[in-house]
Amino acid sequence: MYKNLIGGEWVHGTRTSRNINPSDTGDLVGEFAQADASQARQAIEAASVAQKSWAQSTPQQRFDILDMAGTEILARKLELGDLLAREEGKTLPEAIGEVTRAAHIFKFFAGETLRTSGDLVPSVRLGVNVEVTREPVGVVGLITPWNFPIAIPAWKLAPALAFGNAVVLKPAELVPGSAWALADILQRAGLPPGVLNLVMGRGSEVGQVLLEDERVNAISFTGSVDTGRRVARACVERMAKFQLEMGGKNPMVVLDDADLDVAVGAAINSAFFSTGQRCTASSRFIVTERIHDRFVSAMADRMSGLKVDDARTSGTDIGPVVDERQLSQDQAYINIGKAEGARLVAGGETIATSSHGKPGFYLQPTLFADTTASMRINREEIFGPVASVVKVRSYEEALAMANDTEFGLSAGIATTSLKHATHFKRNSQAGMVMVNLPTAGVDYHVPFGGRKGSSYGPREQGRYASEFYTTVKTAYTQA
Questions:
Q1: pLDDT tens-digit series, residues 38-64
Q2: pLDDT tens by residue, 186-230
Q3: Which of 180, 15, 13 minimizes the C-alpha distance to 83?
């Protein structure tokens, strides 16, 4: 039994939730306590009390704790990677990579505790000095998704703690194990009681308390567009600070002059790695007409060699979909694509069991061709290993189609033309642009975020995280 963390104590919930391995539905990862609204309010109170002294802690104290946590995560990356692969379905190499990234995030923000700076400037008035400093926001509610169960909690937790905030963390119900391990590591690294509180439970219950409680000064949310809008409305109602990372329908443009191997490699990674369950995944390939047929053929050839299997089995390229509900959604969109007249080039079938004979939520990576920009499979986020190809005549048409979406998180282009690469970087309506690279896969020390319906508020990660987790104070002194 894995308990909630409230005020420095591990406590039972009002009920429990079973964490199931999507590679083997007969494998129980663990039973996790589920908090109710009352316990969520207790966690907020603990954070509110603890934050006052934590805000006054020294940069060295915060550095030591975050650095120690990062060191332990690195030392345990194989163990934690195995847990992540088991509960979420990422392949083991991907899961270990995600754990490593979480460790690097903590070490980066350990350093940020010592790099906090301000400004001392002369006033326009004689004999007056002006200080501009940053202070913690206060109590921060973190609501994290299931697709990156340790990296996303890490990139929200680390800056929140580094800048002196107290935290109430609500991880996704599907994957509480990685977040629990992270909370346990931080507690043993020396966080004072109440600075970090872990409340596992339903969004409609625990999450709603975080949105409505006046003691929560800011909310950082990653998840669906519909839920993000509810978060925004609730925060605006009580004037709390909020930050949203939501959906994507990310395009990858492939031009006639592209290196075909580079383009196909980037496309396979973008669409199908991590089972396509990344907000930065590309599910739209916009391909100019002279390279179109070769690109589709090469994609089908490469896809035929991808191994779909248990996430922890050596040689697996694509693990299972996270759960039965997500698998049903993926299947529904495959049927929609067929009904809309798209040509199924590869995949599209479910696989009942792994190579070990264990039942799981397996789906062949799926590619459609002969699609149009107006089809639902090209407009709506699928969040699975399903992608489509649209043929266009020119770079200009490709750029216009890439930007023709309500989302704007990540966009890519495969080309050997410096002219087109430069133009695309400047004119793509996305927060992140990749040239001859997968649309997914970002560094931890630079800003992450999008435009339009994908993101709202200050960027996450890197030094830009201070914009959300701190507030600016201007102080005047008469000399």
A1: 999 999 999 999 999 999 999 999 999
A2: 999 999 999 999 999 999 999 999 999 999 999 999 999 999 999
A3: 180
| Domain 250-435 in CATH 3.40.309.10 | yes
Token pair for 95:
């899961």
> Which CATH topology does 4-246+454-478 take?
Aldehyde Dehydrogenase; Chain A, domain 1 (3.40.605)
Instruction: Give the three-class secondary structure for 287.
Output: strand
If you ran DSSP here, which 8-state letter would residue 206 be given? I
Give the position of tokens 């993926």. Answer: 330
User: Of the ranges 116-125, 252-261, 418-427, which one carries the lowest mean pLDDT score?
Assistant: 116-125
pTM of the model: 0.96
Q: Dihedral angle at the C-alpha atoms of 201, 207, 213, 219, nearest 10 degrees?
A: 130
Asked if 276 contacts 382 with a C-beta cutoff of 8 angstroms, the reply is yes
Nearest to 279 by CA among 156, 152, 369: 152
Torsion of CA 53, 58, 59, 65, to 10 degrees: -70
Give the chain's count of helices (H) and strands (E).
14, 24
Kindly report, as residue ranges, where domains of CATH 3.40.309.10 are found in the chain.
Answer: 250-435
In a 10 Å sphere around its CB, with 0-12 CB exposed, 13-18 middle and 19+ buried, how is residue 374 labelled? Answer: exposed
Map tokens 């909020």 to a residue. Answer: 242
Active-site residues, by number, are 245, 279
Cα distance between residue 73 and residue 417, in whole Å? 42
pLDDT tier for residue 479 given thresholds of 50, 70 and 90: confident
Tell me the C-alpha distance between 12 and 197, whole Å: 13
**Average confidence (pLDDT) over 169-192:** 97
Q: How far is CA 129 from CA 126, 133, 135, 475, in A?
A: 9, 13, 19, 8
The tokens describing 357, both together, are: 């004979």
Q: Are 161 and 195 in contact (CB under 8 A)?
A: yes
Q: And the tokens for 405?
A: 């979406």
pLDDT per position as a tens digit, 240-270: 999 999 999 999 999 999 999 999 999 999 9
pLDDT for residue 374: 97
List, by residue range, all CATH 3.40.605.10 domains of the chain: 4-246+454-478
Q: At what angle do helices 418-427 and 395-403 cross, to 10 degrees?
A: 20
How far is the C-alpha of 64 from the C-alpha of 52, rounded, in Å?
Answer: 19
Tokens of 388: 């489509």
